[in-house]
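Raw record, unedited: HAD family hydrolase
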Amino acid sequence: MRYDLVIFDNDGVLVDSEPISNRILAGYLTELGHPTTYEESIRDYMGAAMHRVHDLVRERWGKELPDGFDDVFHARVFAAFEARLRPVDGVAQVLEKLRADAVPYCVASSGSHERIRTALRTTRLARWIDPAHVFSADDVGRGKPAPDLFLHAARTMGVPAGRCAVVEDSPLGVEAAVAAGMDVYGFAAMTPREKLGGATALFTDPAELLDLLG
């Protein structure tokens, strides 16, 4: 099936940011008295919008995170991005081929617009991404696993949900894509394959993705 739109997640799919941001998040939560390991951060927050962090801390410890938590976290993440962030190996070639074949694509991420812009600029992937085709959970209010972000992206791009393919690396993202009625291809390079249940197909090398997309 040739899709009318390919929707890429950003963190972990286009840019290798999940190890960086989850180590920082786990450290910051622990610093604030909410002990969190890197593995727990990956399990609970990978692919999620920031409101999920606030919600789970409130649920588990009965406390609110301090004012300015998001700003401090993002400042630490952006500084680390500038020093260490890299594109996922092979993804630039995928974007180049989709553009050459005139296959429309966009980015739909739980991250803020500032985080997405910083990541794409730092990794030099911004040259392959139209700024008008970047969507954030900030645009819809509810992040993954709600389907709202993917539906918003498809609607803005003028494509029915059933003609879209989503590329995701997190269980929350796969769940959101399935809820949106879209095919979803799970990138299992970092996430165990069994945690991406519900995906249309799985891959571990971006070079495989072009064949999966038909």
